[in-house]
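Lab notebook, bench 4. Continuing the backlog of folding jobs that were queued last week. Each job is logged with the same field layout so the records can be merged later without manual cleanup. Today's entry covers 2-octaprenyl-3-methyl-6-methoxy-1,4-benzoquinol hydroxylase, a 399-residue chain. Filled in by technician R.K.

JOB TYPE: sequence-to-structure
TARGET: 2-octaprenyl-3-methyl-6-methoxy-1,4-benzoquinol hydroxylase
LENGTH: 399
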Amino acid sequence: MSAPRFDVAVVGGGMVGAVLAVALSRADFSVALVEAERPAPFDDASDYDLRLSAIAPGPRRVLDNLGLWAHVEARRCCAFTGMKVWDAGGGPELFLEHTAVGLPELGHIVENALVVDAAWRALDRVELFCPARMAGLSRDADCARLALDDGRELTAALVVGAEGASSPVRAAAGIPTTGWGYGQRCTVGAVTPARHHRHIAWQRFTQTGPVAFLPLADGRCSLAWHADDALAAELAELDHDAFCARLTEASGGVLGEIERMDSRAAFPLKLLHAERYCDHRVALAGDAAHVLHPMAGQGVNLGLLDVAELVAALEAGRAVGRDAGDTRYLRRYQRARMAENLMMMGATDALKRVYGSSNPLARRLREMAVGAASNLAPIRQLMIHHAVGLSGDGPRLLR
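JOB STATUS: finished
OUTPUT FIELD FOLLOWS
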């Protein structure tokens, strides 16, 4: 029996991969999705997942246009209307608010698992290969062949690696990466502060990394504490009360005393960028293409923007009779996303280094930059427009 033939085979069924599979199927491409493990159905009665994202209004439109956002919004997510950023060492504060750009909110804090759940419910036009892992990739002139670890094989005009930072598709295609570790870990979990978050995202920069509180629908906050490895190891050894006391101190008591910290975990921080997003019969999306420091909360947003641009490029190719793996249109996707992703990666890397420096000149420069953004409305509006993913014209899924 011959192996099935698809327009696109997506490897990886996480947030970006599953949403991409839905988007391509809704655009009338034949799609296969390869995923090692079917995600568990989202449980509203469970506590908040440790992995959350700040979905900006622009990327949210991708989910909305695919009919996924209604499922997310009906379960649990929390809109935030403002963002306050300040330096533990003093100096001006920066407050960004939704009214500056006429938006009802700056974004929503959403559990990654909830977006995955919404996408998997919408895979009715996608052929699932799950549980299965990619065991091999070969490419001919007119197709790519995926060998799976369960012995099955499938062919497609295009294979998309959307399976994360350690992408097997990227490795099999021989696409090099550039990157480095930051020597930091991010401690995450849900915290209960004495005062309500008021639907504001709070971020205090310290020399060892920023401490961020992201608002949750039940009044708690999702913690993202970026700390140098030595401090992160020290924090991991603290008992509950000692950790809450250290967190109250590190946050400057902005929401009062931290009364409770539920389950917590920590993960290492790094920067990684693929030298190209496409190769013969292969494309990369999401963390398979780019991983950046999470202080600006843009990782998932960039992945959803990848989805919108890749679908648009494949649709443009199909309109002139090209198949989904046509290199000319894959390069159109690469051009559209690489420059913007590199700009965001450069900005977050610079922020990390400037705010992590004790050099007096670096401190003065950041005070001047924050002061300018605080006092000049046009600069503040430009920052918000870019942060929420509304910085310019976009493809169909962003309109």
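OBSERVATION: The first helix runs from residue 15 to 26.
SIGNED: R.K.
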